[in-house]
Structures are given as C-alpha cells and as structure tokens.
Specification:
Number of helices: 27
Bound molecules: uridine-5'-diphosphate-glucose, manganese (II) ion
Enzyme class: transferase
Structural class: alpha/beta
Membrane topology: Multi-pass membrane protein
Pathway: Glycan metabolism; plant cellulose biosynthesis
Cofactor: Mn(2+); Zn(2+)
Strand content: 5-15%
Subcellular location: Cell membrane
Strand order of the largest sheet: 5-6-4-3-7-11-9-12
Helix content: 40-55%
Largest sheet: 8 strands, mixed
Oligomer: single chain
Length: 829
C-alpha cells in the first residue's frame, strides 16, 4: 500500500563526473572566446581590410548564436517513471479504474503523400494501446476531405475488431501491424506458446488481406470519376470539392454497440473533416487541431489530449501511462502543460546521411531544456493538459523562498540565485526538514487531490459568460465543457444533439472574432505551429516535461532523400522566420510572464537560427576568396595568436565531446548534425529568409508542404531519389568554388616553391572545412547512378565562374595600391 503513495516519477540529475567537466569546458570556452575576439579586433588585416571586417562580423554572430544554443543546456536532467505505482494508485483491485481519459488526435491531409495504410497503422496502434478502453478516444482529422481516407478508416475500424484483442492477449509490441510483422524475430526459437505461433500466423494472414483491401481502395482512388465520388450507399461524397465542402463527422467505433470479436468494447474512433469554404483562412495543421479540440470537447471531453502526425504510431503501448506518471502526479502534475516524447524514426538509412534522426536535438538540447522549464513542443507525440490549451495561466506554485527553478541546488544558473550564507543555512535546515516532509507528503496527497478541483473553476469563474463566449466562440455546449475541470460529459447529454453541436464547432466561421489561434488552442501565424503553441504555454508559466521511455514511445517516418529533406528544413526555418516577424517573437514577447530567461534564450535561438545562414554563406565563400586572392582573414600569425586559435579549436571540439557523453550521443550522429547544420544553413535557411521577408513585405502567403511518408519499399530506394530544386544551387556553388580554389591554391604553391606552403596551409584548412561539411550534400547530388542533373551543373558552374571572374575584376577587399593584377591567385610579379 505504501508503494502506491510514492511519487510516480523521479528526476535524475546527470552524474557530476559528467556534468562538472562539461560546465568547466563551457566556461573555459567562453574565456578563450574573449581572448580570441580581443586578438581579432585589435589585429586588422591591412591589405585585406574588407575581408577582415566581414569575417569578424560573422564570427561575432557565430559566438552569439553559440551562447544562445549552449546555455539552455546548462543543467540537463533525466527522468524515471514508475508505471507500477501508477497502476497501484489508480487501478485498485475490484474498483473501476481512476486513470484519466485521453483524447488522441491524428492529423492527415493528403492520402497520396500520406498513404492510408500508414494512417491505418497509426490508428490501430492507438486503438490497441494499453489503457482502459473507455478512457481512450481517437479522432482522425482529414484536412483533405478524401473519401479514400474515410473508407480506409472504416476498413481499419473493422480490422481493429480482430487486431486489438490479439495485441492485448499476447501483449505484443509494437501494436502497429506493419511494423510488428516486419520485425525479424524467430518465434520458434524462444520456446513460445504454440497457441501464440498459430494465432500469430492467422493474424498475419488477416493483416495481409486487410492490406490488399486498403491497396485496392488506393488504386480505385487513382482516377476521380467525372461526377465525383459516390459513397457505398449511393449518395455523393460531401467532400468532393476539397476547398469547398461541409464539415463531416462520423463515429466509427465505440459506444455504438460495436465490440471486438471477443465481445469486448473498443475505444471510440471518430472521423472528422472540418468545413472548408473559399475565402476563409484555414490555418493548416493548427486549424485542424483546434477543430479537433472542440469536437472532442463536445463528444468525450477528456482532460488530456495526445496529438500525433498520421505517420507517428504508438511504438510503446504503455506510452499513455508514461505520460500519466507526470500528469496525474498529485504534487508535480498540476503545473505540467504537456509531456513531450522525443521523435524517433523508422526506415532511415544506416548512416543517417541527412541527420534525419535529429539525435543531437532530441537527446541533448531537449534534455537541457527539461532542466529549466521543459522541452519545446515538437508537433507530435505530445500529451497535453486540455486546460493549458485553453490559454489559462498555470496554477500558482508556492515556491520555497529563494529558489525559482527546478535545477539541482548546485547549478542555479537559470534562476540566477546566488547562495549567500543565510540561504545556505536555510538549505541545511531544509535538508533536515525534508525527511519529515516526505512523510507529511503522503498525508498531503489526499488534501491536494481534493484541492486540485478548485484550480480551474477558480480561473473560469473569474470570467463572465460574455467573455467566455468571446474567448471560446458561440457554442454553449463547448463553453460548458471548458468549465468541467476534470473533463467528461454531463450525463444528461444526448449523443445525437452532441453530434449536431460537434458539426457546429467545426464550421469555418466558428473562430471568427474569438481567441482561437491567438490565445486559445494551437496558435496561428506560422507553419511551425508547434514552437508557437508551446511558447505561449511557457509564457503562461506552465512547465513541460520530457519523457524518454526505454522503448521509444512513438515512431514516425522521415524524408530521407536530399530534396525532400531540404524542403522540410525549409518549412521549419520559414516557420521560425514567420515567428521572428510576428508579435509573438520571443525576443520581445511575454516579459513579466512565467517564462524563465534561459528558456527564452532557447526560444530566441529557435527563431533566429535561419539568420545564421547569411554569415554562414559568407564564411563558406571566404576560403575560396582567400585562396584565389592570396589574402587571408588574419594577419601573419604570432605565437600568442596561434595558441588562442588552437585553444578555441580544442575547446569547441571538447564541448562537443563532453556533451555527447552526458547526452549518450555517438560521434557519428554529432558529426552528421554538424554537417547538416552547414548544408541546411546555406540552402534551406537562406530560402526561408527570403520567403519570410516576402511574406512580411509583400504579403505572399506561405504553404505547408507535407512530406511524403514512404510505404515500406525498403532498401532505402528513397535515399537516392532525386528531385530538382533551386535549394540545391547555393551549396553546389559553394562546393565548386571551394574545390576550384583548392586546386588553384595548390597549383599556385607548387609553382612558387617551398615557402608559399606555409601561408597556404591555413587557407587550405579553411576550404577543406567547408568541403567536408558539404560532403553528404555532394554525395546526394551525385546520387546512386552518377546522374547529376545537367541543369544544376550548368547553373552552378555559371555562378561559380561568374563569381570568380567578377572577383578578379572588382576586388572590394583590396584597399591599397589600386588594381592589383591577379589572375587565379597567381602573383604575376
Ligand atoms: O494543412 C495541413 C497540413 C499538414 N497537416 C498535418 O501535419 C502533420 C505534419 O506534417 P509533415 O509533413 O509530416 O511535417 P514534418 O516536418 O514531418 O512534421 C514536423 O513539423 C511540423 C511543423 O512544421 C509539425 O506540425 C509536425 O508535428 C512535426 O512532426 C501531418 O500529420 C499532416 O497531415 C494537416 O493536418 N493539415
Ligand atoms: Mn512528418
């Protein structure tokens, strides 16, 4: 019984043997950086003043962006959950379960890029999740209003009747059939029950048949009949005009008398396609999510929500329980707005050439944030508290005086609390008290559990009915639902009238003159709605939690070919630029709220990073310029200077190494990340800047281009898929001019004999730095079958030679002595 009263999760600080050297190196690097700039600023290059100024400006920018990136990682944490305690506490024997309900949202838009089979697998993994059936409801948002999606979903609901009992009976993982059956496990070896083997084989056959049915739906949907689609009962499909159609809701499973083949109930499954009319702004995915928030509030109104992209299936059937260990924790839970899980992926090439797995971000940056105010929201695999989405402030925390953050005592950089003597004494007292507290805590649990109730009603009761209507829109049923602090639907509500209301709340004018997308729900104004949505919550003083179960909770797919990947990164960067220019820009927005300053650093970093593309491109051209002109960005180097440079270089590498150690990240992942930072930086980020500026200056609208989620055609054939895109031009140009410059530089040195190798070394090193970073890009260009599209080659060679030529003519970096005759860097005298 005592076990049930223990905390449901624990924060594990990173061992100090890892974290202390890490912090030391950061401080050292900061100091070295000081020396570096001291030297750089005091030692201009007189015969190439322009070069020197440009490079120093770039370096200053890099230093700033390093600081923005580094310090939010100052006190990383890890967490541990106790699922057994959760179930001891909330699933008492012989009593109905007390676990909270969860509404799960799946977003899909385009069945050609997001194959129905993938969505079906996600839905199946949700329906089979290890959680009380009546506490789970799955809502699928179809922004494409596709009959194919609808029919595939109803096939899926039929197949779920067999699949769900199978999963639960044999506790299999993962519960997405495609991925389950593609696991290579020899079941005959492990002495499993013969009944299981038989069942599994039968199930596999059933799944194959299901797949055939889905595939035939897909192939039937290839060509649209002239009169549009007709449903099985002969009526025309309401969504025949994708841009102009009524809202559609269909309850496919749950509470409808449909049971699985063993007679058990199934979770609710609801198809939703919000109304679309020309002339209305639909706000892409954020708009879809907000429609689901309202529909689900009317139909099931669970106090918690989970949202996943259509390709992110539940890979760990206990994922919901993991989240509940934080959300339902009586002491910690009530201030948590969401629990974010890392994104993990299937089907990525072994070397992860384009850094699709984003390991450095998910295992290092996000863990760092968890030590401050919590990870940022990344759009999928995230469990929300419904009330936090309604734009309320976090409940006020009664903090122990003198401490404003949750970091371990020793490292209070984020709240900046310095420990005076007094505080230390108090700390010691606290330590003694702690012992007593923990036993008090158990007693306090009951009182808090009673007390939680009051929190939201308090907030809501401050708001008048008129204000509520202005905030949430005109649906009385929806407004009433927001006042129910623990969710749920009033008993007297009739399903038919609720469905009617649900249609109302997904109409396209519902949000007019309300706070939806501004203060409530997913926030509009950027194609990366995720950053903005999480940011708003943190500004309201909420904290989020990062949860990394051993078995990854969710898994998705990622674009593994170069062009798609660059487009994805382009969209993310564009979203950041949009936020940068909006009123929600974290540089200016939300002071005096609950946002901690290191958390703000991180948000600033996540919206300014596209700007780094400008200094980065300049910095990548510099080595070529230097090699071609014979000038360099530093004057002849003294011993002191070379020590500073070496120290800086070593400290940069060292921070990488220690960070990898506490993050558990491998060197290859880290290196890929560095490479892709340059590749993405010189192409996608730059284009994002332009598109973002176009939006601000000329009002050009931005698109959400969904990435294609490949089926399982295996062998990474996708990796070599090549699509022409102008995103490829800048990195190709950079590559060519640098390679040309290296060749020129070396041949120059060969001509000039031994002495000229010394100064050349620095420049060559610099140019090679660029080339190595762009190497995966080069591989992507050449592709599998050596088919570099001529158009890119022509363009890039043209650009490269244009640049080189104009360089020789008008050399702005040569200030002294007028025109110096230099052809290809060869000194002619
Ligand atoms: O008008 C739209 C456009 C997109 N989506 C959905 O948005 C999701 C994300 O699209 P995807 O092309 O997979 O984008 P990714 O870049 O892979 O997604 C990451 O980045 C997005 C922000 O750019 C987040 O929304 C995602 O959750 C996050 O996984 C998909 O489920 C789509 O169905 C909609 O529902 N309606
Ligand atoms: Mn995706």
């Amino acid at each position: 019984m005592d076990e049930a009263r223990q905390p449901l999760s624990r924060k594990l600080p990173i061992p100090s043997s890892m974290i202390s050297p890490y912090r030391l190196i950061i401080i050292l690097r900061l100091m070295i950086l000081g020396f570096f700039f001291h030297y750089r600023l005091l030692h201009p290059v007189h015969d190439a003043y322009g070069l020197w100024v440009t490079s120093v400006i770039c370096e200053i920018w890099f230093a700033i962006s390093w600081i923005l990136d580094q310090f939010p990682k100052w006190c990383p944490v890890r967490r541990e959950t106790y699922l057994d305690r959760l179930s001891l506490r909330y699933e008492k024997e012989g009593k109905p379960t007390e676990l909270a309900s969860i509404d799960i949202f799946v977003s899909t838009v385009d069945p050609t890029k997001e194959p129905p089979l993938i969505t079906a697998n996600t839905v199946l993994s949700i329906l089979a999740v290890d959680y009380p059936v009546d506490k789970v409801a799955c809502y699928v948002s179809d922004d494409g209003a596709a009959m194919l999606t609808f029919e595939a979903l109803s096939e899926t609901s039929e197949f779920a009747r067999k699949w769900v009992p199978f999963c639960k009976k044999f506790s299999i993982e993962p519960r997405a059939p495609e991925w389950y059956f593609s696991q290579k496990i020899d079941y005959l070896k492990n002495k499993v029950h013969p009944a299981f083997v038989k069942h599994r084989r039968a199930m596999k056959r059933e799944y194959e048949e299901f797949k055939v049915r889905i595939n035939s739906l897909v192939s039937m949907a290839q060509k649209v009949p002239e009169e549009g689609w007709t449903m099985q009962d002969g009526t025309p499909w309401p969504g025949n005009n994708v841009r102009n159609h009524p809202g559609m809701i269909q309850v496919l499973l749950g509470h409808t008398g449909v049971h699985d083949i063993e007679g058990n109930e199934l979770p609710r499954l609801v198809y939703v396609s919000r109304e679309k009319r020309p002339g209305f702004e639909h706000h892409k995915k954020a708009g879809a999510m907000n429609a689901l928030v309202r529909v689900s509030a009317v139909i099931s109104n669970a106090p918690y929500l989970l949202n996943v992209d259509c390709d992110h299936y539940i890979n760990n059937s206990k994922a919901l329980r993991e989240a509940m260990c934080f959300m339902m924790d009586p002491s910690l839970g009530k201030r948590v707005c969401y629990v974010q899980f890392p994104q993990r992926f299937d089907g990525i090439d072994r070397h992860d050439r384009y850094s699709n797995r984003n390991i450095v971000f998910f295992d290092i940056n996000m863990r760092g944030l968890d030590g401050i105010q919590g990870p940022i929201y990344v759009g999928t695999g995230c469990v929300f508290r419904r009330q936090a989405l309604y734009g309320y402030d976090a409940p006020v925390k009664k903090k122990p005086p003198g401490k404003t953050c949750n970091c371990p005592r020793c490292c209070c950089l984020c709240c900046g609390s310095r420990k005076g003597k007094k505080v230390k004494q108090r700390d010691q007292k606290k330590k003694k008290m702690k012992h007593r507290e923990s036993s008090n805590q158990i007693y306090a649990l009951e009182t808090i559990q009673g007390g939680i109730k009051g929190i939201y009603t308090e907030q809501a009761s401050k708001t008048s009915p008129d204000e509520l209507e202005k905030k949430f829109g005109q649906s009385p049923v929806f407004i009433a639902s927001t006042l129910l602090e623990n969710g749920g639907i009033p008993d007297e509500a009739r399903p038919a009238s609720l469905l009617n209301e649900a249609i109302q709340v997904i109409s396209c004018d519902y949000e007019d003159k309300t706070d939806w997308g501004k203060e409530v729900g997913w926030i509009y104004g950027s194609v990366t709605e995720d950053i903005l949505t999480g940011f708003k919550m943190h500004c309201h003083g909420w904290r989020s939690v990062y949860c990394i179960p051993k078995r990854p909770a969710f898994k998705g797919s990622a674009p593994i070919n170069l062009s798609d990947r660059l487009h994805q990164v382009l969209r993310w960067a564009l979203g950041s630029v949009e936020i940068f220019f909006s009123k929600h820009c974290p540089v200016w927005y939300g002071y005096g709220g609950g946002l901690k300053w290191l958390e703000r650093f991180s948000y600033i970093n996540s919206v300014v990073y596209p700007w780094t593309s400008i200094p980065l491109i300049i910095y990548c051209t510099l080595p070529a310029i230097c090699l071609l002109t014979g000038k360099f960005i530093v004057p002849e180097i003294s011993n002191y200077a070379s020590i500073v440079f070496m120290a800086l270089f070593i400290s940069i590498a060292a921070t990488g190494i220690v960070e990898m150690r506490w993050g558990g990240v491998g060197i290859d992942d880290w290196w890929r990340n560095e490479q892709f930072w340059v590749i993405g930086g010189v192409s996608s980020h730059l284009f994002a800047l332009f598109q973002g500026l176009l939006k601000v200056l000329a009002g050009v609208n931005t698109n959400f281009t969904v990435t294609s989620k490949a089926g399982d055609d295996g062998e990474y054939s996708e990796l070599y898929l090549f699509k022409w895109t102008s995103l490829l031009i800048p990195p190709t140009t950079l590559l060519i001019i640098n390679i040309v410059a290296v060749v020129v530089g070396i041949s120059d040195a060969i001509n000039n004999g031994y002495e000229s190798w010394g100064p050349l070394f620095g420049k060559l090193f610099f140019a090679l730095w660029v080339i190595v970073h762009l190497y995966p890009f080069l591989k992507g260009l050449i592709g599998k079958k050596d088919r570099l599209p001529t158009i890119i080659l022509v363009w890039s060679i043209l650009l490269a030679s244009l640049l080189t030529l104009s360089w020789v003519r008008i050399n702005p970096f040569l200030t002294k002595g007028g025109l110096v005759l230099e052809v290809c860097g060869l000194d002619c005298d």
